[in-house]
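Human: We require from you a protein record containing the residue sequence and its fold in token form, and nothing else.

Assistant:
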Amino acid sequence: MTTLTKQTLSHLDWLESEAIYILREVAGQCSNPVLLFSGGKDSLCILRLAEKAFRPGRFPFPLMHIDTGHNYQEVIDFRDQRAAELGERLIVRSVEDSMKRGSVVLKSADEPRNKHQSVTLLEAIEEFGFDCCIGGARRDEEKARAKERIMSFRDEFGQWDPKNQRPELWNLYNARSHKGENIRAFPISNWTEMDVWQYIEREKLELPSIYFAHTRPIVRRSGAIVPVTPITPAKPGEQVEDLLVRFRTVGDITCTAPVESDADTVSKIVIETATTTITERGATRLDDQTSDASMEQRKKEGYF
């Protein structure tokens, strides 16, 4: 007589299982999906989940990054390296290309480009005919993202209406769309920042170096730590100091601030994340702190 041993699944096992199910639903329901991959920690988790969902075969979708032209080089280099290691197709479309076409016009040369990614994204969706974009947005990041469905519907203009979304009762997901419409799929919607770091630790995922503590020239501006770079130079009268910092989230240099930290390993980051009282985007995403560039408004205009 065989004795069956009941296996206890951890919360990461449950989250992983749900995300893999969502990725397979996208592959089954959508004719031409794409996975948005920036080289950041959330999209790296999505890559691992896609490996578990579809390997040893190829992914049933290419990877794509919408580059502002002002991203940290460490992250861009890591993005290219990881895509090459996986042997998957990587499509890169740049806000700078949209600027050359005249579809993006900056108010000034130093205007942050992050909010203009929506234009380039919609252009790329039209160029390739994608009917679903898979991304690593999570509900705990920001109040507008908390309104998202797992399969978030966009109309033929690429716009998001939080009051016009499909019900998802009993974990039944509808990713079908008519020509011109689009779905944004979020497999790790129910994950938290802590879940992401614990999954990275469990899966031993490699990361861009800027996620770990390093010394960087910074200035303190409006309560935030702002990195000093050729794109974000110190203003007259500001004092530049070398500080031990790391990034909790990465994106355009003009809107992504580091935090003071000595966490130089994933284990230390997990501990630090458990004790912090500041939200992930609260003091690190400068573009979230201005009303004219609010996340909800940008999402209504097509932002991811």
The longest strand covers residues 214-221. The mean pLDDT is 87. Strands lie at 33-36, 63-67, 90-94, 132-134, 151-154, 182-185, 214-221, 224-227, 241-246, 259-260. The chain has eight helices and ten strands.
